[in-house]
Write a structure and sequence with these properties.
single chain, about 425 residues, alpha/beta, Aspartate Aminotransferase, domain 1, Aspartate Aminotransferase, domain 2, 2 domains, seven-stranded mixed beta sheet, four-stranded mixed beta sheet, globular, binds 4'-deoxy-4'-aminopyridoxal-5'-phosphate
């Protein structure tokens, strides 16, 4: 039985685990436990191993870099992998948003974006959307409302954070246009009543609400945010930590809307599992960062940068962005068939290979129990999945972008039985 448990009692209980699997190795879309049992990994290390586990190109690039230079420390010496990566990222980032700064994790990059926004505008406040996840370090946690477990008991949190509603249509029982109209109207109301635009540095948004329940931001919503950002001189920061690097079937999640961001935050899929994150901004904005105000011992690590360069090659050569779009459609269709047969799955939604099934009771009340049982039944049958949402009642699928039609179909088959067993 693959159950949610800590597999070592000496590990701190802050570490909660979705399964008790101890992974011995990974290859492509699969991980293997120590007994040699194979699992279809539709978690991809929370959206990190987008090129699959141990892609040979990434492994080779990292191996070569390990033998050449592991650590240079970018405030001491620069190195070629970082310089080459900066050039390559400039080619895939939105036009003109091509000045970069590197750190190690999503949370640190969020902090870096906040510092840049405050330094560049001379303003303090940040608008975030209810249900968003931006990280666990103190400022990032202050921006995070995906669940109180991230915020509870650690206050006082950073002041100056204003939480606006996200257009989560299913939750409100509205159509998407209704939810967008509501969310934008409430945002305007907040600008009129709580945070003067003159005090507001930035709006932070995820193109798909991730940890908060896998809810895509409608294009009209992002367009509305851009309009307000332009009107008020507020920066639009897109947190692409989970949605970037092809995950949603476009290279960046915000590309579905066509809006121009002021700051892009990227991590996770960027380096196929090696720790690396970055923020990008146009030159006129990045030039307003205060020299020496940011940095970090490991930022822009040489092996991570080499892995990121190989990741970009693999995404391009193996057409992984298109594959994410196609496989995402196939997965969505399969999951919708399951939902049609089981009313306990109230909504199936997503963009590309970032797809969630939300479990609710007849009156729309979150059904965490059935979601958790379905997740456990899937793990028993060899399919690793994660939940998300403040109630843990959304089961998400976020496989590597290399996933094939056969693997998607195999996952849907396991999921069909798992939901039947859980709902049973
Ligand atoms: N932003 C988003 C959108 C995320 O999904 C995450 C991680 N789930 C983070 C920030 C924080 O990233 P990290 O865990 O690397 O600090």
């Amino acid at each position: 039985m693959v159950e949610a448990a800590r597999s070592d009692a000496r590990l701190s209980p802050v570490l909660t685990q979705a399964t008790s699997v101890v992974a011995a190795r990974g290859e492509g879309v699969h991980v293997y436990d120590e007994a040699g049992r194979r699992y279809l990994d539709f978690t991809a290390g929370i959206g990190v191993t987008s090129t699959g586990h141990c892609h040979p190109r990434v492994v080779e690039a990292a191996r070569r870099q390990v033998a050449t230079l592991v650590h240079g420390q970018y405030t001491t010496v620069l190195h070629r992998p970082l310089l080459r990566l900066t050039e390559r990222l400039g080619e895939v980032l939105p036009e003109g948003v091509d000045r970069l700064f590197y750190v190690n994790s999503g949370s640190e990059a969020v902090e870096a974006a906040l510092r840049l926004a405050r330094h560049a505008t001379g303003r303090q406040n940040a608008v975030v959307f209810q249900g968003s996840f931006h990280g666990r370090t103190m400022a990032a946690a202050s921006l995070t409302t995906s669940g109180t477990k991230i915020r509870a008991g650690i206050g006082p949190l950073m002041p100056g954070v204003v939480v606006a509603p996200f257009p989560y249509a299913y939750r409100y029982g509205w159509t998407e246009p209704e939810a967008v109209r509501f969310a934008l109207r409430e945002l305007d109301y907040l600008f009129a009543t709580v945070t003067s635009p003159r005090d507001t540095a930035a709006i932070f948004v995820e193109p798909v609400l991730g940890e908060g329940g896998y809810v895509p931001a409608p294009a009209e919503f992002l367009t509305g945010l851009r309009e307000r950002a332009d009107r008020y001189g507020v920066l639009l920061v897109v947190d692409e930590v989970q949605t970037g690097f092809g995950r949603t079937g476009r290279f960046w999640g915000h590309r579905h809307s066509g809006v121009r961001p002021d700051i892009v935050i990227t991590a996770k899929g960027l380096a196929s599992g090696f720790p690396l994150s970055a923020i990008a901004a146009p030159a006129e904005l990045m030039d307003r960062a205060w020299p020496g105000s940011q940095g970090g011992t490991y930022g822009g690590n040489a092996v991570s940068c080499a892995a990121a360069l190989a990741t970009l090659d693999v995404i391009e050569e193996e057409n992984l962005v298109d594959n994410a779009a196609q496989m995402g459609e196939r997965l969505l269709k399969g999951l919708r068939r399951v939902a049609d047969a089981h009313p306990v799955v109230g909504d199936v939604r997503g963009l590309g290979l970032m797809v969630g099934s939300e479990f609710t009771g007849p009156d729309g009340v979150p059904d965490t129990g059935t979601a958790t049982r379905a997740q456990a039944a899937a793990a028993d049958a060899g399919l690793l999945l994660l939940t998300c949402g403040p109630y843990g009642n959304v089961v998400r699928m976020i496989p590597p972008l290399i996933v094939t039609a056969e693997q998607v179909d195999a996952a849907v088959e396991i999921w069909t039985d798992a939901v039947a067993r859980a709902a049973g």
